[in-house]
């Protein structure tokens, strides 16, 4: 398969090269990462010196946080995205789009037949699929699925040894909506991906989790090897997952801040959809919107198909005000 470049948010060096603005002056709204991250304490020297150990308290802490016992720590949910296609024979996989582009890329790379579908097509095509993959809530268009819907699709798929893969990277702010709340033991054919990067704002430590049946977790563990998750990542992840006070405060912050972002955008753009991490709307001039904001040092994401824009939540009131003032300079309110 011919390699193709996948564009991601957070590429501020590229932004600074394209527009003559110093890195320190950029406001990065191009990712869905919590802009107010969990702040780690100083990491002890011993954590840097010792190899990672699987019998530390990371797994136990994660099992408590997620309410699920069948978990495997991985080097970011990206590792699971790349590994899962090699854990089953060639299949027909439906991927609900638009979505995070790495999913389709790796299933195609492994030789599977990828069918790109819309959310409203799932019930019509699921009988022809071996695997259904979706993001809940979806990145970028914010589509959300109920647990009842997801479990119904799972039951349809497992009749023929199929899989339902649910990427829950953006669900930590509403944990009651996670499928991990349904059972401590993940049933056969259900695979759930979780990320530390988005909610905790710790994308740089490359830590995530996969919930699945034990046999599949063993296959993923073999692919990953013994020390894929670094000792500092395991140590920091354990502390972050155990910090319930910070988690509750952050959920309140994200809910409030995403509402503020939606209110700032609504005078200028229509049909704005949101999660607690970002706002999304379709617009025929999405690329131009990105360009105008970038000229003022505000970096966002735009998508070609469909032509649309995604903005992450600003970190504070000053950033909200800066965005609001910039929008008022370049865009006319909708009458």
Structure in words:
With 335 residues, this protein is of the alpha/beta class. The chain has two domains: 12-38 and 245-330, Aspartate Aminotransferase, domain 1 (Alpha-Beta Complex), CATH 3.90.1150; 51-242, Aspartate Aminotransferase, domain 2, CATH 3.40.640.10. The chain has helices at 12-18, 45-49, 58-66, 77-83, 101-109, 122-125, 147-158, 214-224, 231-242, 244-265, 286-294, 317-330, and strands at residues 27-28, 71-74, 92-96, 113-117, 131-135, 163-167, 190-195, 208-211, 273-274, 278-282, 298-299, 301-303, 308-312. It has a seven-stranded mixed sheet, sandwiched between helices. It has a four-stranded antiparallel sheet with strand order 9-10-13-12, with helices on one face. A hairpin with a 4-residue loop joins β12 (301-303) and β13. α4 (77-83) runs parallel beside α5 and α10 (244-265) packs parallel to α12 (317-330). The longest helix has 22 residues, at 244-265.
Tags for this model:
single chain; 335 residues; alpha/beta; Aspartate Aminotransferase, domain 2; 2 domains; 4-stranded antiparallel beta sheet; 13 strands; 16% strand
So how many helices?
A: 12
Main β-sheet, spatial strand arrangement: 2-8-7-6-5-3-4
**Coarse structural class:** alpha/beta
CATH architectural name of the largest domain: 3-Layer(aba) Sandwich
Number of E-type strands: 13
| Mean pLDDT level | 95
Q: How much of the polypeptide forms β-strand, as a percent range? A: 15-25%
Sum up the overall morphology in one term: globular
- Helical content stands at 25-40%
